[in-house]
Amino acid sequence: MKIVKVGLLGLGNIGTGTYKTLEMNKAQIEAAAECKIEITKILERDVDRKRDITVVPEQFTQDPDSIFQDPEIDIVIELLGGIEPASTFMLSAMKNGKHVVTANKAAVAANFDRLMKTAKENHVDFRFEASVGGGIPILNAITTVLRSNQFEEILGILNGTTNYILTQMTEYGLPYGDVLKKAQEKGFAEADPTADVEGIDVANKLSILMALAFDTYVAPEDIPTTGITDITRADITDAAVNGCKIKLIASAKKTENGLEYSVKPTRIPNSHPLATINNEFNAVFVRGNAVDELMFYGKGAGPLPTGSAVMGDVLEIAKLCGR
Amino acid sequence: MKIVKVGLLGLGNIGTGTYKTLEMNKAQIEAAAECKIEITKILERDVDRKRDITVVPEQFTQDPDSIFQDPEIDIVIELLGGIEPASTFMLSAMKNGKHVVTANKAAVAANFDRLMKTAKENHVDFRFEASVGGGIPILNAITTVLRSNQFEEILGILNGTTNYILTQMTEYGLPYGDVLKKAQEKGFAEADPTADVEGIDVANKLSILMALAFDTYVAPEDIPTTGITDITRADITDAAVNGCKIKLIASAKKTENGLEYSVKPTRIPNSHPLATINNEFNAVFVRGNAVDELMFYGKGAGPLPTGSAVMGDVLEIAKLCGR
């Protein structure tokens, strides 16, 4: 069997989860891909950190070009996060003929057209399932088999931190500040929660979903976005009295006036499937003109669910380049 | 652009829904497949029935071999239903080098190994997304990107008729017989509902899911199967008192003693995502060792949702044979 070689950029939490997913499920992944898959080089400064995986010191490099210019490497996985240098690294990898897989919603949303165009020009695959909905295989579905539909509407709960906060506020009647603090203590919210609670993270994901489902790229900063910081206990009680829950909803809908889109706290009737998505879970609700309504539900974050999505992309690419 | 030609076996409700899905979304499907797709021949006795689609009389044939032996046809869609002659027809199509797409759970479950083997021997694709969960793209997910996981458990609500009956019994406190009659009047249950209410239809679908997710084929008749005909109002009330709903659940789970599987009415805690799946909707709940829990929700039947799944399969095959 051919060996498909992979260069990994970043061995933080998600990188470690991805590495671990391959370690745990190597036999099964290689059987499905019909080739061997090996992570041969890792760009990472912190070589000493204890990780629950088997990495030999020789795999680490501090020089990204040693990965991009390695003729043996077929696939580059980018898990650095942030727009730069991640975007530049992905473009370099593509220009060197490497297929690219990433979980980086900020970079994909910021540079969607350029990344897609560069991948096409260089005849390489570019996959980013993990960038939207973590482990939920939504991008694969809407770009392959569900293309038999014209999409009419997409609604998503796409951020685990804010969904956790809203769920706890709803279930225990707690104020926003108290729940945020609790979420930070539990590791569900970052020390600086701005990108999550202001809806910026969700806007990135909606930008990617719209580009794929509606062939319409809208930059994240051009999506009308409201976060959850102003939601009060009174708002939540008032919604409950009216048979609704408040969720931070990413929405894109075809209308007579074109595509309408936003990220904002929204009342969802208790009877709607999205009302049942609680705590750190994510869900994407899709309406197509043939399939009618679909919903995909799962863990929107975490090292292993994200690793599942990243390795799923690697597997699909390896199937082709392993031949 | 190359033209990929399709022969269609059966133009009943699902056949018409499939034809209509292609008519409605032709431009988009062809753009995604990067080829033209044309249904050129249709095996169907009832040529006079009014259908809301544009079929020219010359497309109809009464001779299946005129489709299997047509060197111009690339893909055969089988929508006759029932084990025979559908299975024999699919095998003939494969032996003549045609890719095959079907929605026929009875035929796929009964002859899984033979159909898969014959497809492999003849280097053709064999896809059957619509056979499990109607429009829900679950088979594509578990056979492609989710292969980065080892599956631990699959739970499904896989039959719209029985889920409708149980939902109505639960919501309105009605007895089984009354709801069945109502379902038959509404067209949600067949005149002879045996295959649905006795769980036979669900056992077929679980057989297919297990073969794909666990690489373990179990014939439907070897799956311990209990239907919903003995469920009483008292059972449902007693479940409700204990915070549960009764659902007809297809279950397959890896245990220390190997794979355990069954189809039977099961108490699902109200907090479980499957408890929220009501009426004619289906859902498949999957647990993988990396991705953790996922759920896929959508319409399990109906001409257009099923047509969406069939045309999704056709699209994926056309992508490859259109090159």
TrEMBL record, chains A, B:
The active site is at residue 205. NADP(+) binds at residues 10-15. InterPro entries: Asp/hSer_DH_NAD-bd, HDH_cat, HDH_CS, HDH_short, NAD(P)-bd_dom_sf. It comes from the Bacteria. It catalyses: L-homoserine + NADP(+) = L-aspartate 4-semialdehyde + NADPH + H(+). NADPH binds at residue 105. L-homoserine binds at residue 190. Residues 10-129 form the Aspartate/homoserine dehydrogenase NAD-binding domain. Residues 137-315 form the Homoserine dehydrogenase catalytic domain. Its EC number is 1.1.1.3. It holds the Pfam family Homoserine_dh. Keywords: Amino-acid biosynthesis, Methionine biosynthesis, NADP, Oxidoreductase, Sodium, Threonine biosynthesis. Pathway: Amino-acid biosynthesis; L-threonine biosynthesis; L-threonine from L-aspartate: step 3/5; Amino-acid biosynthesis; L-methionine biosynthesis via de novo pathway; L-homoserine from L-aspartate: step 3/3. It is an enzyme of class 1 (oxidoreductase). GO terms for molecular function: homoserine dehydrogenase activity; NADP binding. GO terms for biological process: methionine biosynthetic process; threonine biosynthetic process. Gene3D superfamilies: Dihydrodipicolinate Reductase, domain 2 (3.30.360.10), NAD(P)-binding Rossmann-like Domain (3.40.50.720). Belongs to the homoserine dehydrogenase family. NCBIfam families: PRK06349.1. This is Homoserine dehydrogenase. It comes from Hominibacterium faecale.
